Amino acid sequence: MIITISGKAGSGKSTIARLLSEKLKLRHYSIGDLMRAMAAEKGMALLELNKLAEKDKSIDFELDNKLKEMGKTKDNFVVDGRLTAFFIPNADVRVFLSADDKVRAERILKDRRQQEKSKSLKETAANIKKREESEKKRYKKYYGVNYLDKKLYNYVIDTTKLNPNQVVEKIVKFVKTKQKSL
Q1: Phi, psi (5° rounding) for residue 114?
Q2: How many Å from the N-terminal Cα to the C-terminal Cα in the chain?
Q3: Are the C-beta atoms of 59 and 142 separated by less than 8 Å?
Q4: Interhelix angle for 121-143 vs 46-55, to 10°?
Q5: In this structure, what are the phi and psi dihedrals at residue 53, rounded to the nearest 5 degrees?
Q6: What does the pLDDT look like over 20-47, one tens digit per residue?
Q7: Nearest-angstrom CA–CA distance, 131 and 51
Q8: Domain boundaries in the chain?
Q9: Cα distance between residue 84 and residue 80, in whole Å
Q10: C-beta separation of 21 from 1 below 8 A
Q11: CATH of domain 2-164
Q12: Global pTM value
């Protein structure tokens, strides 16, 4: 079973993927973690790396090639990242998480990832918007894809008013439904 979790920043991708992988006893991979590690290696913030990636496509291609290879050579895992459903179209379950913009900014500010540290909710929301515009621009340019296109997914969840465990339970129910139809 391969499960991809995609969505906007702050929608809960990493948290949900981690909890889901634990619940289903599957391996977990996170493209966001790989991107943050790459930014740290280069001594820059994630937003800076995103801007650099607009000019240096090797950054995206390196991550994307890892993702494609994973989809071809591995099984029984959960992976979170913006383009996971696009690069692993054979995934059994392709989830998209959405949430209200303010809630997403609050979650990211509360999470306090060192590389994404903002001083206020307003600054966090502005950084999210810049990051998403950068990503959308690159993905369209490099692959002709919009990760917000719901046709890429077979399950969409608005996480605005749900806690992580509620989201995981919804996905587990969907997974069980999919398993019955396989």
Answers
A1: -55, -40
A2: 11
A3: no
A4: 30
A5: -65, -25
A6: 999 999 999 998 888 888 888 889 988 8
A7: 8
A8: 2-164
A9: 7
A10: no
A11: 3.40.50.300
A12: 0.86
